[in-house]
User: Fold this.
Amino acid sequence: MLKTILQNIGLTDKDADVYLACLELGTQPASVIAKRAGLKRPTTYLILESLVKRGLMSEYSGSSVKFFTPVPPDQLMSYVEKQKRSLTQHQRELEHYLPQLSALANPYSLSPKVRFFDGIEGVERVMNDTFTTKEPIRCFTSLDCWFLRPETQEYIMWYGKQRVKHYKIPERAIANDTPKNRKYLEDDYPDIQESDIYSQFRWLPSDVGLFQNEINIYDNKVAIVSISSRELLGMIIECESIAETQKAIFEVAWRAAEPSRQEKAKLQALARENIIRHHKPILEFPKFKQTIKKSQAGSGNEAK
Assistant:
C-alpha cells in the first residue's frame, strides 16, 4: 500500500523501493540501500541521484563514500505541491501554444474514425475530449455506474466542476431516475446554486429500462463510456452523420423526459407570471378608471 501511494505521486516502481528501503535504514551508502531494495548497486545509485535532484533525498560525502538520507515523510506533501504548481504552469504554456500546435496538423491526413480506450486512464481520456467541444453537450448519464468505484466517482465529480467552472460548457443530460442520481444532480451538482447556467437535467421515464453507459454527443463525435465492477471501457466515434443521428435521438428523448425539480420551478414561476400579466382587474388601469368616472358624472347631470 505504501509503495502504491508513492507511485501515485509520481515515483516509479524502483524509486519507491529505494525510498522505502532508505526510510527504514536511515542514512546509508548506496551499497547498503541496494541490498535492502533488492536492486543492483549501479541501478540504485542512479535512482538515488535522481531522488536527490527531485528533493526527495539528501546526500553527503564521508571519507570516501557517499551517504544518502531520505526526506521525512511529511515533506512529501511539499513535493506534491511543487508538482501541482509545475503542472499548472505547463498547462498555461500548453493552452498558449495550442493554436500553433493545431496549425501544424495535416488537414489531409486520414485520422482514425473510431478510437478505443480501456482502464481509468482511458475513461478519463474519452471524457476529457468533451472539453474540446464548440457546442453544448447532449448527454445520457447514469451516476449509479460512476459511483460504483471510488476512482470513477472522484473523477466524475472533478469533471463536473471542470466543465462548469473552468470550461463553462453548457450541457443537457438525461439521467436514470434513481435516488442517487436525484440527490447528486438536483442537490449537489457544482452549478446547482447558480441558476443552472450551464446544466440542465431531465429524468428517463420510469417505464423505460435503465441504461448503463455514459454517452456524450458533441460536434461530430459520439463518446461512449462503459463502467461496471468488471470493466472500464471507452470509445470515441468521429462521424458527422452518426453524430447528427444521435443528436436527433436525444432531442426525441429530451421531449419525453421528466423535467428536473429546478426546471419545474422555473416553468411554474413563468406560468404564474403570465397569468398575472394577462389577468389584471380592469379597474387597476387609469384609462378605465377615468372612463367610469366620466360615465358616472354624465349620469348625474341627466338626473338633474
